[in-house]
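Lab meeting notes turned into a lecture example. A postdoc, R.K., suggested we walk through two folding results consecutively so the class can see how the record format repeats. The first protein's sequence and structure tokens come next.
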Amino acid sequence: TDFSRTFFIWEKTSQQRNLSTMKTKRSTILHYWNNSHRSPATIARITKIPIRTVKYNIVKIKNQGTIKDRPRKITANDDKALGQWIRQNNETKSQELVQKLLHDRDLNVSR
């Protein structure tokens, strides 16, 4: 169980790091877009962000007017509670976690 706990913590840290770098990339792309750099190739060259990422985010800017992610259903506190439940019993099934979220936190999620 020590390995699974360590892996879970490492995985969460890795996910948080990836989210922050993605947000940084998005905000950098938006900055250059708002400062009249309209070419994805130019933005990619200046920022060293992959051109596919730049193109994807520019399409989002054009369609939505923003680069924000969709709203999340599970808050940071819900996420923390899930982690605690899993650490208490790492053999808990996803359906049990769904029921626990519904009962304890009035949060309806799918598996």
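The second example is placed directly after the first for contrast:
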Amino acid sequence: MTRRHSIEEFGPERVSKNDCAADDLILLAEVVDAGGFGAASLRTGVSKSRLSRRIATLEEQLGVTLLLRNSRNFEVTEIGRQLYQHGRRVRAETYAATTLAKDNQGEPYGTLRVACPTALVSEYVGRIASEFALANPRVRICLNTTMGTAASQASHADLVLVPSVKGLPDSDMIVQRLAVFRYVLVATPAVAEAAGRPVHPNALEGVDAIGWGGTEESVRWHLEGPGQEHVEVETRVRFSSDNLMVICEAALAGLGVARLPEALCRPYIEKGRLCVVTPGWAPPSGSIRIFVGKAVEQLLSPCLGKSIAEHNGKLI
């Protein structure tokens, strides 16, 4: 039977500076945050084999198992989670010390990891990120796109942009509303014609719809109309995706009525490829929220934070 270890066992009398290097704890934190050696290698630039050797050496020095891994599973042990928390603190303090030394230069400095859905990157964020990188050569930007919401990227990013009416679940990140955007119901002219060119939402009952995520066969849309009137209609989900670009493509293909940000489908409306269904009635507006990691807020230079805020203003 394996004895369970407590972090208190690893005090100065057992773990000397030579036994447990701070950078090994940082690497442990990176591996756990990334969910595996391969992803951690991409994030850190350290080879997968070297990461594995460093963690194995750390386990040997401490006499404990920190990670349980095989070709299919990756699991952190109880003592591994305790040391992971220490590694995160060591990493934060290391970054803080580096930032403190650079702050007096008054120039943005550091690595900024941004997670953002593909639709936002193509419409807004890609251009702003490129402009920011050109204006701040000492900032390294890692912009990762997600195929749906950015919730799954929260633990791997410093900034997470989420287009949603809800917050980011299970996150200790600091949230600010960046911009508000309008939703519209759209379809191809042929689909709208087949539905009788509906004017009131009640005419949409049972119509083929393109859903957002999920596997439900039907979905209820909440719509707002003139005089603050509210209506809910139930539609049949013929196609669904957690990617706004895919939903837009499905609407263009004639698969049904879609609920999309007006800014995303405006070019297709102007070209006549899509039309607004039930004019005057629309889903509630959504928000683009920016989630900022506490480490970024506390550790990156104030100048960098100010520059980010100035560039974010272009989204509104």
